[in-house]
Amino acid sequence: MKQENQNSEQKTPKGKGCLQAIIGIFVIAFALALFTDDEPAKDSTPVAQEQSATDQKIDGIINQAQPYKVGYSKDLSIGNRSRFNANITTADNLSDEQLLATAAQAAKDLQLKNRVQVASVNVMVNGAPKVTVNYAPDMKGWSGDYTGGRFVIE
């Protein structure tokens, strides 16, 4: 008789443990949904009193950007700095300003799309890079050192 009483005291109602587990899962899922950021990266360009000469030049011509295609691309993040590099191709008959504008626009697009701190774009012409533009909205460039501008032309 004593053994039966001990067994009946140790039993818990079926379903109570399952209900607690289900409630726990819902609480965790709700917390994850609440604190997860589903918005794409925003251009977090600091507002500065003075723009670099390079930024001024690119801001003046970026509306001349032409369609481009991304070829080779790779995430080159290392340490505390997230980086993305891509080679792009565009029409062959573009002026130097159009090439620069296209590279700058592609760098901005890829920085946002890949949610990295800096993006570097090489415009390839006949298999070789004609112009390279780095874009870092935080003005810290490829290495993370302050460059004084969002764009760096190489």
Describe this structure in words.
This protein is of the alpha+beta class. Helices cover 37% and strands 23% of the residues. The chain is built from four helices and five strands; from the N terminus they run H-H-H-E-E-H-E-E-E. It has a five-stranded mixed β-sheet with strand order 1-2-3-4-5, covered by helices on one side. The longest helix is centred in the first third of the chain and has 20 residues, at 16-35. The radius of gyration is 27 Å and the shape is elongated. The protein starts with a helix and ends with a strand.
Compose a concise summary of this entry.
This protein has helices at about 1-10, 15-35, 55-60, 95-115, and strands at about 70-75, 85-90, 120-125, 130-135, 150-154. With about 150 residues, the chain is an alpha+beta fold.
